[in-house]
């Protein structure tokens, strides 16, 4: 019991960093909701309804991309600009706050930070904050500009007027790099299904944005893979692995589906297979209608969405490091190693327990909300699971259920987007900071497993 | 690399106990297939087809209960007797071999066995084997006799002729205690949907059979809960928890479903809710048609099936201890404890890694086979997932897909029943026995999670 009280005290003392993140995102959503309620943001005479504004603001700040209305037609140009600003604020916030939280945690645990060589202090100093903010800002500006230029070029060639081409290019570039998936086309990118000049830059922006700031920084600073940190190696391995396996799986699953790419040539099949292996992690653009995909694609996409992208990135999901660590646990078990190792580094049981906790609680959240949504609506389980995973992992892909979910269902999705976006980040930092030592050791128990 | 070779050597040396189990079950299935191929086992002139005999023998020996034909009409009385014998051999083998494996593992790891006070040896002695076989035999005879007497009594009251009543009573009692779920009625137990005198004894037999021999032995020998082992405490806690939560969930989910219990009184709703919370873990009898249940029930039942029953029991699934341990990991994480503890016992990271490995590989097997079966057949994902989980966890519940799966699909189910039945038991013992030490320690890596 004394133990419990000590835990309680520590909780109050250390909850801060995670609370900061939750408060920041809650405030951004509140401001976004108020802005989107202004009549000037609407194409029609009246302003948006409260639920529509709240849902859209949450979806934009959490860079999800699920929508209850047609973004192109429902919102005015001002509305589009507000949504773009919310996406940028959300994505920037995720990269910086995610990086700072990770930094804070590693400092508290007495590890040397890899971000700079400053002396170890108990908290994250102003120097760190400046480094991170500057770095994220620079990466964001560079990537978004390049991609916007490429997209604008394509749209000019297509014959769009220059102003419109630039606006569309910037919007989709920002939406892609921040893994937001909002599009100014009612059909997302289905009209560009065979257009590599559009799809490839967007996919690249999504992948880079989804690696996470710590990884991007290392890739920029250190050219020799040997000097990469374990985190970077794990993230890159899993990212490349999921891209290759995902592309093969999706391409094969849709190869002869006439409703998606079955009637098209093999280069387009491969292009779209690649594109739809990237988008579930967790950008949310689509160049085919997910209401038309095969059951295998639906299931595979759900798994890709759940895993998501890199830590301290604009991508959602439970993060690639979480799952590749669980994979290394299995490898260690099967090889009979007493310690879990990855790339010649020892992984502490503490870290494995964190990964396990995040994965299991994530699974519980998705399964639980799927049951709740199945109860609240009349939709079939696979589609509901798809939508719930898309919201939780802040992907934004949809088989078309979200607009027809009803008020209760949409509110569930709002909550799911918020906890799915902030849950894994804040949970892990809260867990890592709360660890304390027991003053006595208990005898070992050995239950039978399996 | 020297490391790998050492692991390889150890593998060859210690693979034995797990291999014994797999060989024993493989042989029993082979003998069962040959017996069921005999024309005397069929009601028709010709003998059964090879696939039907193989599927039925596997289903009986693995105490699954999935069927490709109507057990009542397709097989003769001799066939029924063969099936009953296969069930008894399978269930008896699971309890004894499961217990001996656990004993062998705990001996190898230098822990004091709880089964008797014999001196510690490097292997399981003849005395242990005798104790276990005798104990399982005694428990089996006692429970099966009591339940058979209760069922026979009910059937006599119903007006069945004495010989028939006795046969039906014995068959369903054996099928229930061994968690086999085979029934001599084409509709399983739907005709007894409101009959507590039939359903409750069967549920009790299923629960007792699903606790596992180590737990039953302790319950018989030690009346004071304080002296129970951690394994018994964990098994009982999770069993009671799943029964209570499962009953509530299933009852509420089916409360107003006119196709199951919606039109019946509340006592029957509660009785059937309880019965169908017990049957997924992993008996496989049904008193309503699973093709008619709500989506919530379908999803909840899949989870109950996947978890299954107790270790070294007649129940399948990944076992209750596996999952309750993962739950305690989350508790430890959230409380910030450096060690995972349960009921004042320390759980070693090694044990947690085993539980995690079993759970993840089980999940992979079910999801992978669901994808394969979705590809091979035209059925919808939820139903295919239900059938695959039912086969893997050797439950035997069905929404009616199995007979219509086609040859390839049914062969997948045969494999799934076999690896689902033996996988968790043998995997854990193999993992536990192969653990060896590294001669040098690596620097710690600290990837970001979540
Ligand atoms: K997204
Ligand atoms: K069964």
Automatic annotation (TrEMBL), chains A, B:
Membrane topology: Multi-pass membrane protein
Signal peptide: none
GO BP field: metal ion transport
Ranges in a coiled coil: none
Residue intervals passing through the bilayer: 20-38, 50-69, 81-105, 132-153, 196-220, 232-252, 298-331, 351-373, 411-433
Keyword list, A-Z: Cell membrane, Ion transport, Membrane, Transmembrane, Transmembrane helix, Transport
GO molecular function: monoatomic cation transmembrane transporter activity
Major place of residence: membrane
Cellular localization per UniProt: Cell membrane
InterPro entries for this protein: Cat_transpt
GO cellular component: plasma membrane
Pfam name, any one: TrkH
Statement: the UniProt record of this protein carries the keyword Cell membrane: yes
Protein name: TrkH family potassium uptake protein
